[in-house]
Amino acid sequence: MLIGIHPLLSPDLLHVLAAMGHGDEIAIVDANFPGTACAQRLIRMDGVGATDALEAVLTLLPLDSFVEHTANVMQVVGDPDAVPEAVAAFTAIIAGRGKVGSVERFAFYERAKRCFAIVQTGEGRLYGNIILTKGVIGA
Description:
Elements: H1 11-19, E1 25-29, H2 35-38, E2 42-45, H3 50-57, E3 71-74, H4 85-94, E4 100-103, H5 105-113, E5 117-121, E6 130-133
Parallel strand pairs: 1-5, 2-5, 3-4
Antiparallel strand pairs: 1-6, 3-6
């Protein structure tokens, strides 16, 4: 056990977060996402919602301030301007830390394949998928 570490952050996830470098990306995805097929490194958080996972990750992960969007969500198929419940929650959590963009569904899958890791949650809400870009910690 460690002091000050969010209880949802497993040893495997802590290792991934520490190993990531500036500009590396990590995806937090819902239960329907093809995580095993897409991931270079897959961390499972079954039973945990994507927004809870996002909040836990953001206790340690600085977001990149040198990119247009520090986070990107998956667009709704056929209605790219729609804002599903999970996306609204992600946006509220990211507020004040950076700007959230959106990516077409299949482009999101391709981007997720290039992520340093994918965190597969038990999120049941549709479009509960977000990609974060790691920033730097200032001196």
